[in-house]
Amino acid sequence: MLNMVFLTNSWLSSFNQPGLCITMAMLLHYFLLAAFTWMCLESVHFYLALVKVFNVYVPKYILKCCIAGWGIPAVVIILVLIINKDFYGNGSHSESNPYSNFCWIQDNLVFYISVVAYFFFIFLTNTAMFITVLLQIHSVKTRTQKRSGVWKR
C-alpha cells in the first residue's frame, strides 16, 4: 500500500483538491510508519526466536503484533490530525512543472518528530536486538566449541 499511495500521490495532487491531498498525505504517512513498525516487530520476533528460545509462549501473539503494527502508526496519525489537519497538504517543488506537486507533511517540526524521530527509535531498537542476537549466537558457538574440546580429550 505504501508503494501504491506513493505512486499515485503526485497524480492525485494535480487535481488541487485539499481534502484529497490531505487524505493522500495521511495515507502515505500512515503506511510509511506502519512499514517501520512492522520492521521493528520483526526484530522483536527475531529476538524471541533466537535469544528467548524456551518459555516464550505469548498468548494471542499474532493479534498483539497486528494491534501494534497497525495501531501505533494510527495513533501517531490521529495525534497529528488532532493537533492540526493542515500539517498535511500539497507541497510544490517547482512552479514550472505542475506534476512536481506532492501531498506530504508541510511542517518541518512535525516531519522530524513523526517520521525522523520515529525511524530513529526503530533503528535503535533494531540495532539493539541485532547486537543481542549476535552476542547470543557467539555465546552458543563458544559453549559448543568448549564442549567439543572436552569430548576430543
Quick gist of this model?
The protein has 153 residues and is mostly helical.
Report on the architecture of this protein.
α2 (18-50) runs antiparallel to α3 and α2 (18-50) packs parallel to α4. With 153 residues, this protein is mainly alpha-helical. The radius of gyration is 22 Å and the shape is elongated. Strands 1-2 form a two-stranded antiparallel sheet. It has one domain (1-89, 100-151). The protein has helices spanning 2-13, 18-50, 61-83, 108-152, and strands at residues 88-91, 102-105. The protein contains 4 helices and 2 strands. The chain crosses the membrane at residues 20-41, 61-83, 109-137. GO terms for molecular function: G protein-coupled receptor activity. Residues 1-153 form the G-protein coupled receptors family 2 profile domain. Its main location: membrane.
Write the layout of secondary structure elements.
Layout: H1 2-13, H2 18-50, H3 61-83, E1 88-91, E2 102-105, H4 108-152
Antiparallel strand pairs: 1-2
